[in-house]
Write a structure and sequence with these properties.
This protein is of the alpha+beta class. It has three domains: about 140 residues, Porin chaperone SurA, peptide-binding domain (Triger factor/SurA peptide-binding fold); about 140 residues, Roll (Chitinase A, domain 3), CATH 3.10.50.40; about 110 residues, Chitinase A, domain 3 (Roll). The chain contains 14 helices and eleven strands. A four-stranded antiparallel β-sheet has the order 4-3-6-5. The longest helix has about 30 residues. The chain is globular.
Length: about 425
């Protein structure tokens, strides 16, 4: 029996009473009506809590947009399962912890906070796991194929030098009307007419978020097109030219990229710091990874022996070359180079932060094994030029990612068997 058939059978109780319903059959899976109801409730709640509240399109249009979103999600989850993508509880908990910190809530208090908003914690975890799975799939299927050339980065940096956008942070929303790959002239004309109609409605006073929910093909459509805050240097290149003249609350005229038409709105903007300095530390370490032969106590003892030998005059680097299980640094005598905040896992970073220059730690455990670490130097580093490089890389990737993801999603949607039932 297929997944779809099993799910339909599960809708009936022992008395034959209908418990749920199938909104769409997607390959050998389903989208349930309960999923549509749950997501609809979330959108209505989020729209009502926005300041000001976001108007919503008519119920039938909202349901159509939402069902298509759930169908695309189901297709992607099926593909992720086929290629073996799995999200561990640790990865999920790390994401939840970041969400909790962003909202000023302790990790252990988040279930109660969600319950206060009427959100079931188990459902929250399940939906977040899906989001992370889809994101990883897109990075594998789309992101890894995106190439950025040194010439593109050079050109980006040159363009940013006198660009007003790079000196600001932006809170953006957008509306995207996509076109098929190798679109015909008629398909291009239809998309252009659609974006022009959206623009006319916006000019007449329509709410941007409502228009995004109603018309946009972007993944952020059901969030009212919200992209959120980003640094000017990280704004996708396709938006950079159009947002420069815009103030808070303004939206652009329609513009075209290779496979889509767009309208972008500046929700808010603020001045950005032009130069950046970070505290860096230079460290080297010795890693011993426990296995079937080396248990924790043995690993710890080996490192204690190494500390003793270093104290007796042997070179840290020579011992690291012989002992360390870290393939990235052992040949370098354990040297991990200059690193900034957030580079290491928290348990490693905490030890590093508490060491003086020249200090060697006691053996300690991280998720990778047992370590001894030495801090060899510290400095304040002007990383402005590094940020320009990384921001331009991210900026170009983001622009290409949006276009390529839209085309990829059209392809997998066209290849899937879908039967809607509502």
């Amino acid at each position: 029996m297929s997944v779809a058939t099993a799910a339909i059978a599960d809708e009936l109780s022992e008395t034959g009473e209908f418990l749920d319903g199938v909104a769409a059959v997607v390959n050998d899976g389903v989208v349930l009506k309960s999923q549509v109801r749950y997501q609809t409730a979330l959108i209505i709640d989020r729209a009502g809590k926005a300041d000001p509240p976001t108007p919503l399109p008519p119920a039938d249009i909202l349901r159509e947009q939402l069902l298509e979103h759930l169908i695309l999600t189901e297709i992607q989850l099926q593909r992720a399962a086929r290629i073996g993508i799995q999200i561990s509880d640790q990865m999920l908990n790390d994401s939840i912890n970041r969400i909790a910190q962003t909202n000023g809530v302790a990790f252990e208090d988040l279930p109660a906070a969600l319950a206060g908003d009427g959100v079931d914690y188990a459902t929250f975890r399940r939906e977040l796991r899906k989001e992370i799975t889809v994101d990883q799939l897109q990075q594998i299927d789309v992101g890894r194929s995106i190439q950025v050339s040194p010439r593109e980065i050079e050109q980006c940096i040159a363009n940013l030098e006198d660009n007003v956008v790079v000196n600001s942070d932006y809170n953006l929303s957008h509306i995207l009307i996509s076109m098929p790959e190798s679109a015909t002239a008629d398909q291009v004309a239809d998309a252009e007419a659609k974006i022009a109609d959206v623009h006319r409605q916006l000019q007449a006073g329509a709410n941007f978020g409502e228009m995004a929910i109603r018309y946009s093909n972007a993944q952020t459509a059901l969030e009212g097109g919200l992209l959120g805050w980003m640094k000017g240097a990280q704004v996708p290149t396709i938006y950079a030219d159009v947002i420069g003249p815009l103030g808070a609350g303004d939206f652009s005229a329609p513009f075209r990229s290779s496979s889509s038409f767009h309208i972008v709105q500046v929700n808010d903007l603020r001045s950005a710091v032009q130069r950046s300095e970070i505290d860096q530390v230079q460290v080297r370490h010795i890693l011993v990874t426990p296995n079937e032969i080396i248990d924790d106590e043995t690993a710890k003892q080996r490192l204690n022996d190494a500390i003793k030998r270093i104290g007796e005059g042997e070179e840290f680097a020579e011992i690291a070359k012989l002992m360390s299980d870290d393939p990235g640094s052992s040949n370098l005598g354990g040297d991990m180079g200059w690193t900034g905040p957030g580079t290491f896992v928290p348990e490693f970073e905490e030890v590093v932060n508490n060491l003086e220059i020249g200090g060697i730690s006691e053996p300690f455990r991280s998720r990778f094994g047992w370590h001894v670490v030495e801090v060899t130097d510290r400095r304040v580093y002007d990383n402005t030029e590094d940020l320009k490089q990384s921001n331009c890389m991210l900026r170009i990737q983001n622009s290409k990612m949006e276009e390529e993801t839209q085309l990829w999603m059209r392809r997998i949607r066209d290849e899937a068997f879908v039967e809607t039932r509502i």
